[in-house]
Design goal:
Largest sheet: 7 strands, mixed
Structural class: alpha+beta
Radius of gyration: 29 Å
Low-confidence stretches: none
Mean pLDDT: 94
Strand content: 5-15%
CATH architecture of the largest domain: Up-down Bundle
Number of helices: 19
CATH class of the largest domain: Mainly Alpha
CATH topology of the largest domain: Four Helix Bundle (Hemerythrin (Met), subunit A)
Number of strands: 13
Distance between the termini: 41 Å
Helix content: 40-55%
CATH superfamily of the largest domain: Formiminotetrahydrofolate cyclodeaminase monomer, up-and-down helical bundle
Length: about 575
């Protein structure tokens, strides 16, 4: 189950006063649920780029607190720097990382913009995906004239989207802010086996969206061609949503193609890599590796791993960490230095900086058994049922993966890869339920422990017990349903997989039936304590699935036994 994570990259108009910068970042870090990832001050620009991430509402709150603190500490009437700017908090973009869409980030940005205008009195322009006017998707349009141009713009048709009014003393101090949403920008350098900046630039011009200027006769020394308005005519590059240049890096002694991928939907990381490889090869140059600058979303590496596995005609039904390992090796992400996932992948950096929570699924097999055997009532049958369901899915996945690369079955790899992906997804869902079941039991215990002195406390306690008990029925019902879905997979691998692995499919069917009956027992014991129409409905649905499970197990075992006896 993907956790919702977004990144926020506010730019504050202060790059010289370290005490003020620290106060701003401390205000951000004080919000529970966010992790500060990077602080990059620039003296010449007099600007600091701050990067933090977390779940959406926490990130929005942290952004608000950072904007508030910047407004207190930065006087824009005295600000000077090399970078364009119009406010104490100049820009504040939200970036989807995982489990959240760009439109959700845009909605969050607009809500924050309204709050900043209402509570802090700072005018806000909504830009990029959050723009309310098409032309304001372009940040430059929102920021035209910079801070010095605000006096003429405020209170006119060119004024802010939120909190617009005539220029006053407060705006004179805080300026205006641009709040928006954009896709994740991946900064990446492709290492070349050359020291030639000119050749690296040629490759960059081949691929970047902007391309290169057209010249007379198609020669590098030819006169640049221009349109009727005097603008240079360009030959577009092959990669949408990219910017790129070539340069030489003294530290490494090589030239690189340095690229920003601004639209990862149009040009995923792996596509950019392969295209740079293709264009470099056409010029007699090799790409020897790749360097990620800053952080990268896990999704980008997982998709890259899947891409390279697909090119190898290998099953995609493997854990994400294996896909990431394939991506790292395929693109040479570890050529210049070790690629440490916990330091380079946004979600893993966040996880490493959050308080470590104990999860049953993180225990060794023996430790899980020992914990179950202890005097504590949890983990109990519900968690064990979910784990048995996960093992059933794991066995189906294993049989599919073995078939995907069986000698002589090369033309069927995709058929079995699809099965393995399905099994991997079911296994992941059921592993989550191992802990969910114990959490549900603990919630019931916590509800029973609530105070019950006053009438209000008694009512709150009764409601909490009811809600927790309903949840303790719903969680094993999810285990039951997810496990039931493994039967279809187990049947397909039993019928079509390698006959030598038929017994594994049979054990999977046995484990699935046991998991379903176990989950149903948990549902019944919890449902007995409450009267709830919705619970009665799912109990009836569960009873039907339990009966069907017995038939599914028997049918799959018949297939398995036939396969075994015919060997």
């Amino acid at each position: 189950m993907n956790r919702k994570i977004i990144e926020c990259v506010p730019n504050f108009s202060e790059g010289r006063n370290m005490e003020n910068i620290k106060s701003i970042t401390e205000a951000i870090e004080a919000v529970e649920g966010v992790a500060l990832l990077d602080v990059d001050p620039g003296e010449a620009t007099n600007r600091t780029v701050v990067t933090f991430a977390g779940e959406p509402e926490a990130v929005a709150e942290a952004a608000f607190q950072g904007i508030r603190k910047a407004a207190e500490l930065i006087d824009m009437s005295k600000h000077h720097g090399a970078h364009p700017r119009m406010g104490a908090t100049d820009v504040c973009p939200f970036v989807p990382v995982s489990g959240v869409t760009l439109e959700e980030c845009a909605d969050l940005a607009r809500r924050l913009a309204q709050r900043v205008a209402d509570e802090l009195g700072i005018p806000v322009y909504a830009y990029e995906a959050a723009a309310l006017k098409p032309e304001r998707k372009n940040l430059a349009v929102c920021r035209k004239g910079e801070y010095e141009g605000l006096a003429a713009r405020m209170g006119t048709d060119d004024g802010a989207d939120f909190g617009d009014r005539a220029f006053d003393e407060q705006i004179a101090r805080t300026g205006a802010t641009a709040i928006g949403a954009r896709d994740f920008l991946i900064a990446v350098n492709f290492n070349l086996n050359t020291t030639s900046t000119r050749r690296a630039n040629a490759i960059a011009f081949d691929v970047r969206e902007k391309g290169r200027p057209l010249r007379e006769g198609g020669k590098l020394t030819g006169k640049p061609l221009k349109d009727a308005d005097g603008n240079p005519l360009m030959q577009p590059g092959t990669l949408k949503g990219t910017k790129a240049i070539g340069w030489y890096i003294d530290e490494y002694g090589i030239a690189q193609v340095s690229m920003n991928i601004t639209d990862t939907a149009a040009t995923p990381l792996h596509m950019a890599f392969d295209e740079v490889v293709r264009k470099a090869d056409a010029r007699g140059i090799r790409v020897t590796g790749t360097e990620i600058v800053g952080l990268v979303p896990r999704k980008a590496l997982v998709e890259a791993g899947e891409y390279f596995l697909r090119k190898q005609q290998r099953s995609l039904g493997v854990p994400d960490k294996e896909k990431i390992r394939i991506a790292v090796k395929s693109m040479g992400l570890d050529e210049l230095r070790p690629f440490v996932v916990e330091e380079k992948v946004v979600e893993d950096v966040l996880a490493a900086r959050q308080p470590k929570q104990a999860h049953l699924v993180d225990l060794s097999v023996s430790r899980f058994a020992e914990t179950t055997a202890s005097e504590s009532p949890a983990p109990g049958g519900g968690s064990v049922a979910a784990y048995m369901g996960a093992l059933a899915a794991a066995l189906g996945t294993m049989v599919a993966n073995l078939a995907a690369h069986k000698a002589g079955w090369d033309d069927r790899w995709e058929e079995f890869s699809d099965m393995a992906e399905e099994g991997q997804s079911l296994m992941d869902s059921l592993l989550v339920l191992v802990d969910r079941d114990t959490e549900a039991f603990n919630s019931i215990m916590a509800a029973f422990g609530m105070p019950k002195t006053t009438e209000a406390e008694k009512e709150a306690r009764v409601k909490a017990i009811h809600d927790a008990t309903v949840n303790a029925v719903e969680v094993p019902f999810r285990t039951l349903c997810e496990t039931f879905a493994t039967f279809a997979l187990l049947r397909r691998v039993a019928e079509n997989g390698n006959p030598a692995s038929a017994s594994d499919a049979g054990v999977g069917a046995l484990a699935a039936r046991a998991a379903i009956h176990g989950a149903y027992l948990n549902m019944k014991i919890n449902a007995a304590d409450i009267s709830d129409g919705a619970v009665d409905v799912i109990m009836d649905e569960a009873a039907v699935l339990v009966a069907d499970a017995d038939r599914e197990e028997a049918s799959i075992l018949a297939i398995v036994n036939e396969k075994i006896s015919s060997k």
